[in-house]
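Researcher: Quick one. two chains, 740 residues in total.
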Amino acid sequence: MSKQDRFKAVPMPKQPPEVRIHNFNEVALGYTEEQAIKEAERCLQCPEPKCVPGCPVGIDIPAFIKLLREGKFREAIRKIKEKNNLPAICGRVCPQETQCQMNCVLGKKGDPVSIGRLERFLADWEREHGVEIPEKQPSTGKRIAVIGSGPAGLTAAADLARLGHEVVVFEALHEPGGVLMYGIPEFRLPKRIVQAEVDYVKKLGVTIKTNAVIGRLFTIPELLKDEGFDAVFIGTGAGLPRFLRVPGENLCGIYSANEFLIRINLMKGYMFPKWDTPIKIGKKVAVIGGGNVAMDASRCSLRLGAEEVHIVYRRSRAEMPARKEEVENAEEEGIKFDFLANPVAFHGDEYGWVRKMECVRMRLTEPDESGRRRPVPIEGSNFFMDVDTVVIAIGQTPNPLIQQTTPGLAVSKRGTIIVDENMQTSIEGVYAGGDVVTGAATVISAMGAGKKAAESIHKYLMNKR
Amino acid sequence: MFKIIEKKELAPKIKLFKISAPEIAKKAQPGQFIILRVRKEGERVPLTIADYDREKGTITFVFQEVGRTTKQLGKFNEGDEIPDVLGPLGRPAEIEKFGKVVCIGIGVFAAPMALQARAFKEKGNYVIGVNIARRKDLIIFEDEFRAACDEFYISTDDGSRGYQGIEFLKEILERGVDRVVVFGLVPAQKQICELTKPYGVKTVVDLMPIMVDGMGMCGTCRVTVGGETKFACVDGPEFDGHQVDFDELERRRRMYTPEEKIASVMYERLGGYES
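Model:
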């Protein structure tokens, strides 16, 4: 292999920006077999791999890459699935650049091996060639309730089912998948892929009960006492939108990112009136925030037909929490970035629709507890932007319903559930993981937490007399 | 799937459904609501629970055929199944012993108000029921509502039955009451709150703004109450009517009126796009 081939990643085929801004189809098209093998051949097969510790679920990365480049795709995906039940999702939305790929030895001199793209290739290959259902352990007779069917819940459910437990997942919405269904847009994570992964979890014997809002339909004490569950896993995520709390925020045309994305992704607002739920988009859109959700909302706005889309972020480019790849995609598509600006008020017309956004310029001072430089407003720097749609994407916090209806459940000041090193909450037999514990984070960290909780629940149930 | 046990037409375009939903029936309380969908491509529509039977495992709701979803729902028959029903949602109404309670149910909302009136009565309140409709043929739930009340009044907008308008409420208020509960469309709720305000009587309103998830996720239903933003789905649906910004609420409720019209007309003319 030439030096150039060794250090240069095989590029991912993508829909060109001028085409993709007019459709909701997936942007990244995936490797062909040849491309995947060529990329896999770059792996040095380190005897002490640095990539594996970077993986929150501990996939044996060099082993699956070796199988892949030998053309043993079935064995390769089996290797991934030893640790990860949802590879088609992880291969698409994991921030590999800060995890497995960050420590790749090749990354010191060139491009790291594109581990995520290879994972995606294998998962897609398996879906096309028939998904294998792994053998399960003999039944333990134990019943576990999993609350929430997002990444944490699905992972915990799949692992527990494979260990021989009976698992029922309670999902409050009408479709399983949590944030994978309602939050991440089709063009980044096609919903048929999520549905296929959910089907896989069902084939492991997991029952998914939709339209079941825990805290109202059943409480956790009732699940344990009356419904005959031996343990509970809470994976309810961070679904409560944060607002700016500035004047005019309830004007028509101002959405929380959650509302905007639920209308688009879960309710298929872009297919109105074929689908019943409408979504309104203006000519000039401002999306407030600098995370992946802000990138998603801004790119959705373009696809819905907005003429000009701005991301307004109170810090500078360097502090943006969004993945680099997503920021690049957004820029390629023509999203404009306004850094060091923060809305202080919204002004509407006589019908109550937002027309202008009043912002203040910010400057960065010393780092805060997150390690990022804290932004402070510059007095007298107010300016106005014409807008007719605004999406507030400044973060989410956990939904408090379970916390409020479960006596004795320890909760932090931020509303997150407190767990010990085994993911157990303050109540015996009740475990939690994912965003409901950490606050809004990534899909893979939620999966890692679901996995760890499943191990702990298994130990707890097997040792309990 | 949720099977329809009973279907009744209460008035033109106003229908009652009793459906089998044992888990919801077990937990439902007056003032709570459900969210339903009528098809795979369907929108999520909130409807207030008008009754429940914990033993038989049924819940009852009443709706008026106004938009695409309610029009399609109206075509469902006994034995048919509604694909998605979620609930019970929202905080239960505050039902305490207040003394004299005036329960005002307007139009289709007379049905859930009858349930609240019964709950107030069971708590030992003196319940004054007021059933308001546009015309006499649109008065629904009269018998059930009346049965729960110590005094009962009917009023129509056109005077075709009972009192005309809401001025007569002043007589009741002048006698001295301890609480007023109003359930109806936003403009009517606003009018009644303005009428009760000079009497200094606590007036609570049940709000049903546009919702999507109904569990606090989206914030579509946000409403300003006493200068603070609240979510009707999880902080309500019951709020202090003298604190609610009704004008903002009504504007937000009309946000999608053009789209609702399009969907409704397309459904009627083309039968919609059936899956």
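Chain B has nine helices and 16 strands.
Researcher: Thanks, that's what I needed.
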